[in-house]
């Protein structure tokens, strides 16, 4: 029975005898035999080579890393190495075995000498537990068996699922707060004075939205839109944005505690990645010299310049989307189809959001290649260093891909488009789009909602369907040739064959399989925190997505993909710094949304400086009465640009002037004093909000210790007892 435990399987096509590929393959397998590996060959439509490492390799491994795993070491000197460690060591040796032609397995796979190399999913007690308790849809709301995941997939994967589970659990609170905010908006603030005034303004004539053949319109047409806006844009949102800034900090602080507990229970405190890599290099080749650290300023400069160029390209794409929306708006407005011309602005925003989603999908692929290219330029020393460099680059690129268009909508839309009679135009022709009269925040809301819904539904379906379909197809390709050649008798005698074949039929995993999952969740985390003031339902969507995501990833790993090479890790690596950066951006982003995008500040300024309340002591009156009339400026029709074709009649009345959203004087269209008051108030609020939120974040970070007392005490007593044991042994030896 023991004979049939294989660590790894190599698969290759059946090459002709004496062909170059066959010679290369034989050289590689000979190198493995020299190192004492046992190799078993099974012939089918492909050649399968089972590889088992000799026991002395693992003894060396245990001796070299004795001090870091001191606790395990004391119990028994030659105990069995855990399966995850076996696979990791074997994987390392296979990847670093060099043939006489100076080729490694990686090069041979490129030259199609070998087609695949993978560790096996085996039928064991642990796989059954994982399939029953984890990799199925029925256990959606049960706790994950993190310990079993660690014993099967290694610490790195287990930490990912522990982190994802923790994040999902804390999202419940954020989602509840978000739902409460929207509920407050629909109930408490639905009868707000501002939206009431918009709905009653049936004789406020507004300036046309486009240059050719657009008529004037009445403000009360936008009644429903105003109600939606005030559902998001009210006092509750400010509190919610504050709450989310604190939530992001508390989430990370609590995760650090959770991680410390986990790392101690897994004995990872003394473990050092670099030391382990050096040990494995020496086991593989005792003459190995370490690769020294290098740093080249020239290389860093080139990488920096190229990265900046790439970011420029991504911002350029955001500009292209802006231009699309301006042109689309103009074309829809002039369209013959009634539906299009009536809802031109909403349709332009919606199609813009869908286009943005498509650019995200395409640019993700491009960013990937660019980040890899930049990573190779840097020549990182170790695998983990390479992964860190890659993470930072791809995250920055993905961030700009996902957010540049949102940043434009939040902070620039409707603020840089001039005023009637003097519009800013693209190529001197198309007017830049404006915000809706009831505020810009709804545009941001629509964009966020469309992207988050599309991202989560389409991306998740694709992420599950593609591996599932390709697995089904690989199963179908199973040739019946073998049973004819070999006859049924031989079929029965080799139990390995079926197991190896079924593993081969699964989808291949690559180095970045886990990385992809992290990236997806981290981008989602940015959506959940950065502009959450404009879209309070984001945490709820994220929560629903994550509950499904955990089990989808589990099913993919257990049933659709070959087994991942287990890796050791004591934390989630550089992702923690990325999450901390997002937390800081979230404070800035939400502060800006409330200060600049929402109408919160202009309304407050009006209430306390310009409203009827300031003149007389009206306790019964709502202080925001008259806000809408005050926020619209007057424009005289004779000042229109010469090429603007506007019908001067509206409902049978000759029109002399129309209104537009801005604070400008009626005679020379310069800014009024109120504009500067509001501007100052926005800045003051922004500075106040950022500082208060950042102080609260710092206090929260200080208040919650990173490492729980229990863990600190455990490490302390362990060090103490180790030193005491050493002391007693030295005393004993000196006495003898």
UniProtKB/TrEMBL annotation:
Residue stretches making up the Anoctamin transmembrane domain: 149-716
GO MF, one example: chloride channel activity
Keywords from the named record: Cell membrane, Glycoprotein, Membrane, Transmembrane, Transmembrane helix
InterPro entries assigned: Anoct_dimer (IPR032394), Anoctamin (IPR007632), Anoctamin_TM (IPR049452)
GO cellular component, one term: plasma membrane
Membrane topology: Multi-pass membrane protein
Subcellular location: Cell membrane; Membrane
Keyword hit for Zinc: no
Transmembrane segments: 157-184, 236-255, 302-327, 347-374, 394-413, 522-551, 572-596, 679-704
Domain Anoctamin dimerisation: start-end pairs: 83-146
Family per record: Belongs to the anoctamin family.
Protein name: Anoctamin
Name of the gene encoding the protein in the UniProt record: Ano9
């Amino acid at each position: 029975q023991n004979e049939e435990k294989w660590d790894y399987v190599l698969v290759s096509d059946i090459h002709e005898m004496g062909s170059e590929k066959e010679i290369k393959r034989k050289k590689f397998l000979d190198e493995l035999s020299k190192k004492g590996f046992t190799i078993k060959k099974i012939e089918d439509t492909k050649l399968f080579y089972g590889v088992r490492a000799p026991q002395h390799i693992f003894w060396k491994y245990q001796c070299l890393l004795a001090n870091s795993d001191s606790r395990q070491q004391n119990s028994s000197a030659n105990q069995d190495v855990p399966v995850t460690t076996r696979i990791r060591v074997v994987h390392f040796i296979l990847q670093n075995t060099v043939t006489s032609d100076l080729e490694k397995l990686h090069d041979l796979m490129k030259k199609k000498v070998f087609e695949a190399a993978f560790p096996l999913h085996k039928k064991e007690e642990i796989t059954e537990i994982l399939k029953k308790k984890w990799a199925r849809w029925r256990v959606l709301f049960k706790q994950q068996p993190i310990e079993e995941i660690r014993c099967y997939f290694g610490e790195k994967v287990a930490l990912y699922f522990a982190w994802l589970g923790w994040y999902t659990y804390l999202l419940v609170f954020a989602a509840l707060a978000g739902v409460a905010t929207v509920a407050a908006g629909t109930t408490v603030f639905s009868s707000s004075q501002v939206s009431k005034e918009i709905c009653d303004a049936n004789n406020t004539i507004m300036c046309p939205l486009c240059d050719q053949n657009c008529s004037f319109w009445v403000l009360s047409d936008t009644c429903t839109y105003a109600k939606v806006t005030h559902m998001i844009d009210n006092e509750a949102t400010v509190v919610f944005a504050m709450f989310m800034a604190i939530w992001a900090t508390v989430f990370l602080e609590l995760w650090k505690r959770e991680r410390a507990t986990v790392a101690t229970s897994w004995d990872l405190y003394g473990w050092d990645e670099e030391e382990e890599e050096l040990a494995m290099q020496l086991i593989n080749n005792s003459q190995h010299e370490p690769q020294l650290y290098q740093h080249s300023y020239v290389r860093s400069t080139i990488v920096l310049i190229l990265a900046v160029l790439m970011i420029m390209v991504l911002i350029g794409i955001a500009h292209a989307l802006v231009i699309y929306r301006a042109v689309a708006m103009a074309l829809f407005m002039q369209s013959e189809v009634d539906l299009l011309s009536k809802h031109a602005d909403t349709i332009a925003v919606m199609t813009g959001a869908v286009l943005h989603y498509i650019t995200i999908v395409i640019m993700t692929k491009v960013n990937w290649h660019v980040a890899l290219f930049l990573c190779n330029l840097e020549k990182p020393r170790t695998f983990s260093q390479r992964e860190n460099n890659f993470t930072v680059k791809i995250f920055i690129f993905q961030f700009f891909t996902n957010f540049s268009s949102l940043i434009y909508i939040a902070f620039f839309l409707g603020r840089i488009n001039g005023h009637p009679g003097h519009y800013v135009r693209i190529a001197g022709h198309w007017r830049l789009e404006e915000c809706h009269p009831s505020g810009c925040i709804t545009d941001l809301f629509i964009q966020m909602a469309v992207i988050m819904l599309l991202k989560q539904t389409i991306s998740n379906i694709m992420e599950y369907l593609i591996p599932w379909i390709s697995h089904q197809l690989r199963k179908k390709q199973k040739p019946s040739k073998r049973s004819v050649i070999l006859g049924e008798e031989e079929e029965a005698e080799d139990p390995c064959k079926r197991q190896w074949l079924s593993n081969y039929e699964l989808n291949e995993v690559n180095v970045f399989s886990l990385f992809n999952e992290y990236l997806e969740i981290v981008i989602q985390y940015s959506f959940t925190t950065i502009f959450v003031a404009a879209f309070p339902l984001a945490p709820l969507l994220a929560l629903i997505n994550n509950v499904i995501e955990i089990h989808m990833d589990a099913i993919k790993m257990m049933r659709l993909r070959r087994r991942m090479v287990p890796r050791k890790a004591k934390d989630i690596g550089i992702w923690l710094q990325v999450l901390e950066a997002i937390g800081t951006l979230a404070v800035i982003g939400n502060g800006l949304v409330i200060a600049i995008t929402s109408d919160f500040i202009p309304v407050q300024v009006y209430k306390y400086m310009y409203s009827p309340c300031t003149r007389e002591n009206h306790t019964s009156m709502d202080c925001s009465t008259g806000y809408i009339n005050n926020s619209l400026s007057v424009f005289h029709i004779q000042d229109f640009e010469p090429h603007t074709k506007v019908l001067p009649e509206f409902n049978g009345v000759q029109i002399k002037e129309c209104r537009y959203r801005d604070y400008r004087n009626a005679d020379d269209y310069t800014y009024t004093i109120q504009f500067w008051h509001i501007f100052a108030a926005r800045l003051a609020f922004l500075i106040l909000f950022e500082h208060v939120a950042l102080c609260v974040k710092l206090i929260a970070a200080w208040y919650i210790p990173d490492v729980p007392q229990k863990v600190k005490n455990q490490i302390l007593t362990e060090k103490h007892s180790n030193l005491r044991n050493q002391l007693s042994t030295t005393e004993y030896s000196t006495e003898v």
